[in-house]
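User: Some background: our group keeps a shared notebook of sequences we're curious about, and every so often someone picks one and asks for a predicted structure to add to the entry. Today it's my turn. The entry only has the sequence so far, pasted here. Could you supply the structure so I can complete it?
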Amino acid sequence: MSRIMAIDFGMKRTGIAISDEMNLIASGLCTVETSQLMDFLKENIASKNISTLVVGLPTQIDGTPSAIEKNILFFIEDFQQLFPHIKVEREDERYTSKMAAETIYQSGIKKKKRQNKALLDETSATIILQSYMYNN
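Assistant: Of course. Here's the predicted structure to add to the notebook entry:
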């Protein structure tokens, strides 16, 4: 079966999560430098049998788009040109960073490791993916 991949797009780093083959469980995969994101996707889309890419939709509390949204739209446009057969979906990512920080804290990870922002991005992507799978 095909899998779903989700990203928490950032200007410096992008968190990546992937579903299991039954599309029931989201797991953090990694965090990559955003400048390396397309290369990472080229290497992993086919090998991991990805059929859908879920991209976080960042909005302000009032529902207006966050400043990074225009960069995300450019990324999606480039992605769809490279991978026209992959469906791109959006999922609200409001509060995912806060939920990710709380999840990491509650997991008992030591303070020094909790300060790793890459872990926060990966966990945020996992929350985005789990939310998408729950809602669809």
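Suggested note for the entry: The chain is about 40% helix and 25% strand. The CA atoms of residues 13 and 117 lie 9 Å apart.
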